[in-house]
Amino acid sequence: MRVVFLLVPHVHLLDLAGPAQVFSTVRDLRLGYELHYVAEQEEVPTAQGVPLRAVVEWPRLGRDDLILVPGWRSLTFGERHGMLTGSTRARIAAHHAGGGTVASVCAGADALGQAGLLDGRRCTTHHGLQDYLARRYPQARVVRDVLFVEDERVVTSAGIASGIDLALHLVATRHGPAVAAQVAREMVVYARRNGDAPQHSAMLRHRDHLSDVVHRVQDVIDDRFADRLPLRDLALAAGVSERTLTRAFGEATGLTPLRYQQLLRLERAEHLIGHGATVEAAAHATGFEDARMLRRLRARA
Prior knowledge:
Shape: elongated
CATH topology of the largest domain: Rossmann fold
Order of helices and strands: EHEEEEHEHEHEEEHHHHHHHHH
CATH superfamily of the largest domain: Class I glutamine amidotransferase (GATase) domain
CATH class of the largest domain: Alpha Beta
Largest sheet: 6 strands, mixed
Structural class: alpha/beta
Number of strands: 10
Number of helices: 13
């Protein structure tokens, strides 16, 4: 997968560095990522004063690739710093038309608007720019008070640190929430899907803590949630007593290890059922002894 960061003059460093760190960490997991930094000129000034070097030649992109536009410092959208050439706008539009995904952080939403990709779609941007975005693109449906919004492979985020949430969401969508949680843990940030995300994965929802003991146990459960996992084995894996594990797990997640495992099983079973599997087949695939327990958990949920 190629991730192309389109750098606009006066780009905000964190708008760029947050998502770049996420995808470079995924690359370090040997999942086949390439990161590219392109611009309309080789030297790009940043809002924080550190100049960046980029290439002007775009790599060849396919439908599995991503274009991401970090935000830039501008009092309003449409200032000369954010205006793209016709060829750049056409590249963004053509990539999306060919089945690719485009994303933005903060003011980067304006680049997607210039490419005609916000009309008729839900989107967001930094809270200080939402009114201007709505005025500049009246056919766009600006969503407020969310971290990010995804609409037909157009993904926009609120700005600054929310670019990390956007990138983790894209990783979770492509590789599953366990990989996203692993990346977030490496970055020492909360793994979360917030804002407009329609699915709130249990793996990410209960990873918003910094307990290394609990993370180690969650790593085991995430990898083997369909197996029988006695509490003593989990405690042994974490190097603590069963009582200590139960207390720490509850403090960090509000759950017992068994309840967390059940949530993962239920979430996976619902996915299988939604794709045509019977309740019995889904129960078997996710480690339930029979379908009755799965039915009870679904009814309770």
